[in-house]
Design brief:
- This protein is mostly helical.
- The chain has a single domain, classed as Four Helix Bundle (Hemerythrin (Met), subunit A) (Up-down Bundle), CATH 1.20.120.
- Helix 1 packs antiparallel against helix 2 and helix 2 packs antiparallel against helix 3.
- The longest helix is centred in the N-terminal third of the chain and has 25 residues.
- Bound molecules: heme C (HEC).
Length: 151
Amino acid sequence: MRKQWMGIVVVAGVVAGQAQVRAHDAKNLPPGPIHDRHELMEGIGKNAKAIGNALKSGDLKAVPEAASAIKKDAAKILPLFPPGSTHAESRAKPEIWTDWKTFEAGAKDLEKTSGDLAATAKSGGDVSAAADKMFDNCKGCHEKFRVPEKK
Ligand code: HEC
């Protein structure tokens, strides 16, 4: 159980760290969907980090709100990826538009896994397992549809 949590904390930390590293790049993004999805994902990253920290400390009070916020944001992902919205500072892969069905499913899954996590945290269920599912969701979509971080 503990080991699993550490995994989640690492994923959340990595995700949030990436958001920080790239935060200064936002000014290079043109106003519109590419800029807005950057902000959206950063917000999702902050809430994911809050969930990771809650699991690490064992104090789960922050989880329902953070997971519900991710659910709301997940519903906003798809319209922010109009066809061909690429940019030098964007890490969106062209596969998003050649395999839109899979991308769409990933965003819908995130609505579900974050909603399940919020519900599980409220009902006192297995928060660690529910969080795991959600973080797998983030990772799955990033692996397929996001260009790896430049070193
Ligand atoms: C449906 C696919 C998908 C899902 C699910 C997804 N992401 Fe993303 N995420 C992306 C894509 C694509 C980008 C790159 C967007 C760009 O650069 O234009 C991204 C970028 C990010 C960024 C970097 C923001 C920036 O531009 O600096 C963070 C942080 C992030 N995601 C966190 C998360 C977290 C945490 C989750 C799960 C709770 C998650 N994402 C779920 C597709 C997804």
